[in-house]
Specification:
Layout (H helix, E strand, L loop, with lengths): L1 H21 L2 E5 L2 E10 L3 E5 L7 E4 L5 E3 L5 E3 L17 E3 L9 E11 L7 H18 L4 E10 L14 E10 L5 H8 L4 E10 L6 E3 L1 H4 L12 E4 L2 E5 L10 E8 L3 E8 L2 E9 L3 H11 L1
Parallel strand pairs: 7-9
Antiparallel strand pairs: 1-2, 1-5, 2-3, 3-4, 5-6, 8-10, 9-10, 11-12, 11-17, 13-14, 14-15, 15-16, 16-17
Length: about 300
């Protein structure tokens, strides 16, 4: 009888052990549930393992919507990061001064901005806001939605004297841009395969300029727009690149793909020292492109 009892306990213990091994937690990111084993939920990072693996991974809480534990309990996070598709979404760029928040995110490169008051009576807050807007615009054009601000500098207005000119307020910001979303080569190839595109918009940001410039070929180009076939994509440092010719208003042939939209828009980016260019193309099947081609044919 005692042997039977001990055997029963062993069977129950093995069963509970198997249940514990099979139990999984879930990371919910971009609306999708990923089965994992949560190791730790920290203040800025979540550490986890994939089922059946021993390696420990970490993810910034900026990316995670919630964690669903095997017990059924859910921990929901207030995600401050929003999608940024381009310059028009620059206000959505999230600025952080905490290094841990960007660990594990895809780096998109360094960013810098500077704004100077027009006169020695310029308001410091106005100049600060302009510097912030320029930093966000640069990040957005790089395809980023998060910026880790590493350095800030602000100088107040300095009144001049009898033989000395005054100096107006100035703010400079610098840091690194990051993206919580990673564009895959498969996504790009699936969207562009067998398609033709027209140049839709060109955005240019010069760090020394007051604000970005925009050129819309659809309405401003005096010459008929030429269709372009986008191919020759490859991956470099985790970024999808394209080597192509025929992009208007540039001799550059290598670009980074920084945005894809399901309705047929694709954005290519080129950075030349202090100047960033976004070339936005539209699928010729899109209604805007169809209307343009119809008018041109008349």
């Amino acid at each position: 009888m005692q042997k039977i009892f001990i055997s029963s306990l062993l069977i129950i213990a093995v069963a509970f052990s198997a249940m514990a091994q099979d139990a999984v937690d879930y990371l919910v990111y971009k609306g999708e549930k990923t089965p994992v084993k949560i190791i730790e939920v920290g203040s800025k990072q979540i550490k986890y393992r994939y089922p059946g693996e021993e390696a420990i991974y970490s993810m910034s809480k900026l990316q995670v919507e919630k964690v669903i534990f095997a017990s059924g309990r859910e921990e929901v996070f207030d995600v401050p990061v929003k999608p940024v598709k381009g310059l028009s979404d620059a206000n959505n760029v999230y600025l952080t001064y905490i290094q841990d928040e960007v660990d594990g995110l895809l780096s998109k490169g360094s960013v810098f901005s500077k704004a100077v008051g027009v006169t020695t009576l310029s308001a410091i807050n106005t100049v600060n806001n302009r510097a912030t807007d320029k930093l966000k615009a640069e990040a957005a054009m790089l395809g980023a939605n998060v910026v880790f601000v590493g350095n800030t500098f602000t100088r107040g207005n300095q009144a001049g004297g009898k033989n000395q000119a005054g100096v107006s307020t100035m703010t400079s910001l610098s840091g690194t841009a990051f993206s919580t979303d990673k564009i895959s080569l498969d996504e790009v190839q699936a969207m562009t395969a067998g398609k033709e595109f027209l140049p839709f918009m060109i955005n240019k940001l010069n760090r020394n300029a007051w604000s970005p410039n925009t050129f819309n070929p659809f309405y401003e180009s005096k010459k008929p727009l030429e269709k372009l076939t986008l191919n020759g994509f490859y991956v470099e440092d985790g970024k999808v690149m394209i080597k192509t010719s025929g992009v208007p208003k540039t001799k550059q042939q290598v670009f980074e793909v920084v945005n894809l939209e399901a309705d047929g828009f694709i954005t290519l980016m080129h950075r030349d020292s202090k100047v960033i260019y976004n070339y936005i193309f539209i699928d010729t099947d899109h209604e805007f492109a169809q209307a343009y081609l119809k008018n041109r044919a008349q």
